Amino acid sequence: MKSKKSRNMLFLTLSAVLLVVLALTGCGSNNNGNNAPSSAPSNNAANGGSSANTGSDLLNEIKTAGVIKVGLMGTYAPYNFLNENKEIDGFDADVAKEVAKRLGVKVEFAPQEFSGLIPSLQAGKIDAIISQVTITDERKQQIDFTQPYITNEVKIIVKEDNDSITKLEDFKGKNIGVGLGTNDESYLRNDVLPQVGNFEIKTYDDVITSLQDLNAGRIDATINNLYALKPIVDKNGYKIKAVGDAIKSDQAGIAIRKNNPEFLAALDQALTDMKADGTYNTIFQKWFGEEPPAE
């Protein structure tokens, strides 16, 4: 009996100890319910860090990295193209290099087809586009623009022996070539087609191919600006010509993702300073052989 009684007393003692431990554990878990060990961040701290990154300062990131990634076509001389040394060159490239220098960083070019530039920008693969992106209200809904850095006049281009097309109304029933995803394509589809009547629009990923087709008679006309066409025509000996008056005038700006006001302001300031100190004029004359038109 004595042995059995001892066992009962031991059981009761252990049960009491267990109850005390459980009670203390419960109190600990309910004390300041949100408390976490000092070595681990609380949920609030983690959320605070995340929200700070959501509105990150792109200008700061670029300066910290020391590089601005610029998208352009690389096939659109004299604006941007591969030179004999297989380096990106041209008017846009020189503007990009000068802007980068004034931001205190280097430029890294990312050449690609024009139709992919804005999607690449929005996906964060590049920081800016400097590739003759025309400023339009439609594009302003997707991306932000700096002040214009060039104005281009667009003309109708036909073969030298073609006298049947001299104005937009002559496009009816014809095959017209234009750059895919460009403002000129939107202009033909949204403005010219409804006024002129049906004509076929053939799109191209680069200017050279469109001029090859024009020269070979596979299309009847294209529209473009003379600055872009001259070096290609001179190099390849295409028998083409510009006809009539300019059908429109476009302004191109540096394009960036939306909601980066500090970056946009810095780019604008760089362009303003370039124009004020004569650097812009020097770049313009280098590529076009004339003074830029008065703004």
Automatic annotation (TrEMBL):
Coiled-coil parts of chain: none
Domain Solute-binding protein family 3/N-terminal: 67-291
Domain Ionotropic glutamate receptor C-terminal: 67-290
Pfam families named among the record's database cross-references: SBP_bac_3
Span of the signal peptide: 1-23
Keywords: Signal
Name of the protein this chain belongs to: Transporter substrate-binding domain-containing protein
